[in-house]
Amino acid sequence: MADPAVLKQLRETLAGLETGGFRRRPVLPFGLAPIDSRLADGGLRLDALHEIAPAAPDMAEDCAATLFVSGIAARAWGPVLWVVRRRDLFAPGLAQSGLDPKRLIYAEAADDAELLAIMEEGLRHRGLGAVIGEARRADMTATRRLQLAAEGGRTIALLMKRHAREGSDPIRVPSAAVTRWRVGCAPSAPLPVAGVGRARWRLTLARQKGGEGFEQIVEACDATGRCALPAALGHRTAATGRADRQAA
């Protein structure tokens, strides 16, 4: 029988090798079991770079991706630095997804290179809860620099990859991001009367380190920055649980 103390020391050594010498990083969970349970870290690592792209190059998908990013930042701690290339952010819309305009610090960059440099500086500051940037192009070298700048801190890095041209796929470009998401619009919740219900998104995790990709339909962020499962899915989960208990 192996000595328990030796086994414990071996586990700690292996854990140190797997995480580059750091202990397990704190994460920001979505609070939705179908998502958190399929993320390698149980949520979004706070000391890491995450990429988000609209599922298609149109305004509706772009807005969905922006509000998804805003909801994540809303649930992070402290001030949020948002670096833009164009002045198209709508503060009341961000507030509806939980991000208080008083927490926002805006910076406008002349090009992608300047934007990425500002993001890196913000991540190294260590006094921000989130650093967000919107870029059309960011290669492996640039994203690796952002990932290294984020490691060891508590500032989540969110890079929104806009479509460079019609038919392009921002997520296909190699990247050092820990997770890479596509956000698209899905049919909204039906109402008993004529009108449009709560918006729904199709979240696609195209890639994650240490895990597999998946797809999930969610209801858009509420005023606390949290997404929700559509009611039908929630009821189905409950019904499945009852069936499992009955089968047991």
Q: What is the topology?
A:
Blueprint: H1 4-18, E1 27-28, H2 33-36, E2 44-45, E3 49-54, H3 59-74, E4 80-84, H4 91-96, E5 104-108, H5 112-125, E6 130-135, H6 140-150, E7 156-161, E8 179-186, E9 200-208, E10 214-219, H7 231-247
Helix pairs in contact: 5-6
Quick description:
It comes from Sphingomonas hengshuiensis. The chain is of the alpha/beta class and 248 residues long.
CA radius of gyration: 19 Å
Kindly state the number of beta strands.
10
Task: Just name the CATH architecture.
Answer: 3-Layer(aba) Sandwich
Instruction: Please report the number of helical segments.
Output: 7
| Total of domains | 1
Percent of residues in helices: 25-40%
- Class by alpha and beta content: alpha/beta
Task: Tell me the span between the first and last alpha carbons.
Answer: 36 Å
Task: Report the average pLDDT across residues.
Answer: 86
Indicate the overall shape.
globular
One letter per element, helices H and strands E, the order comes to: HEHEEHEHEHEHEEEEH
Q: Per CATH, what is the topology? A: Rossmann fold
Q: Give the CATH class.
A: Alpha Beta
Unreliable spans: 18-23, 234-248
Major beta sheet summary: 8 strands, mixed
**Widest beta sheet: strand line-up:** 5-4-6-7-3-8-9-10
Annotated CATH homologous superfamily = P-loop containing nucleotide triphosphate hydrolases
DSSP strand (E) fraction? 15-25%
InterPro entries: ImuA (IPR017026), P-loop_NTPase (IPR027417)
Protein name: Protein ImuA
Organism: Sphingomonas hengshuiensis
